[in-house]
Design brief:
By secondary structure, this protein is α/β, with parallel strands linked by helices. 49% of the residues lie in helices and 11% in strands.
Length: 296
């Protein structure tokens, strides 16, 4: 995983640095048998603030990190400076900060996690996953949710999605495993021409070595994750837990407790079983493309 801080690089940003630093702070605290509440008191904060720091959910004040390192018995100057340097780098903005005026902070957190992940598993029941949307399809989806937005804002939202997709093009791209309900591909978002272009793009995407795409056909009936879409992100560092992301209309839920993650992992495994195998995907999409062609 890259820990560079170049602002425009699609795989840069503070999130990965925060979760790395947070994980190290947690290990140091637990190694000393110190509670989150006691650690919070040391930096004039709460135990929940320590929890958010250790999960990489908030920015770090260098003074707070220095105080915690002293409390945890880290006296070696080299080790201290390495961790303090990490704290300074973690406060640099990610490439997406240019779009901060058009997206909520909870989604900015997701972009950071997505950029840091080595495996992204996602299940969708309404739209094509954002990482696989064509610009035309993305525009149609964005206009559904932002009908009153100006043309310039719509353009910027489309561009944000395009830049987000660059992580799949980088030299060390994450693995993307997407399971899509057939209804997604039959919903005429943007009209026949837009859907034709989107299905063609999915056919090409399914040929790439870092993308696995499965479709749940209507005849599969009900399935384990019928409650709604979600994503599970896994990171290269073994000490970092998987994170489940569940987006809502005005917020998002991030889950990393083992029981919660296991519950969603089981649901994901079930939908992968219910779905047609990946080697059937191109044939299914080809048939859908033919149907859309007739409609057009």
């Amino acid at each position: 995983m890259s820990t560079g801080t170049q602002e425009e690089a699609p795989n840069s940003g503070p999130t990965v640095l925060r979760i790395l630093l947070g994980a190290q702070l947690r290990r140091l605290r637990e190694g000393k048998g110190i509670t989150r509440e006691d650690a919070g008191y040391e930096i004039r904060a709460s135990g929940s603030k320590i929890s958010r720091m250790e999960l990489g959910r908030v920015s770090f004040k260098e003074r707070d990190v220095a105080d915690l390192l002293s409390m945890y018995g880290v006296g070696d100057p080299v080790e201290r400076e390495a961790l303090l340097s990490l704290a300074r780098q973690a406060n640099n903005p990610g490439w997406w900060h240019h779009f901060g005026d058009i997206m909520p902070s909870w989604f900015q957190s997701y972009l950071g996690l997505e950029a840091a992940a080595s495996l992204i598993r996602t299940y969708e029941i309404q739209f094509v996953p954002g990482l696989l949307q064509t610009p035309e399809y993305a525009r149609a989806v964005i206009m559904l949710g932002h009908a009153g937005a100006t043309g310039d804002e719509i353009d910027r939202r489309v561009e944000l999605r395009r830049q987000r997709q660059q992580l799949l093009e980088r030299p060390d791209p994450p693995q993307l495993w997407a399971v899509i309900d057939e209804a997604v591909l039959r919903r005429p978002i943007g009209g026949a021409d837009v859907m034709r272009g989107q299905i063609e793009a999915l056919i090409e995407a399914s040929k790439r070595p870092n993308i696995r795409l499965q479709i749940i056909p209507f005849h599969a009936g009900g399935h384990a994750a019928a409650g709604g879409p979600f994503a599970i992100l896994r990171f290269p560092e073994p000490e970092l837990p998987d994170v489940v992301y569940v987006e809502q209309l005005t917020s998002a839920i991030y889950l990393d407790k083992r029981d919660d993650v296991d519950h969603y992992a089981i649901a994901m495994e079930r939908v992968c079983i219910d779905a047609e195998p990946p080697n059937h995907t191109q044939d299914i999409l080809g048939k859908l493309l033919h149907e859309v062609g007739r409609l057009g």
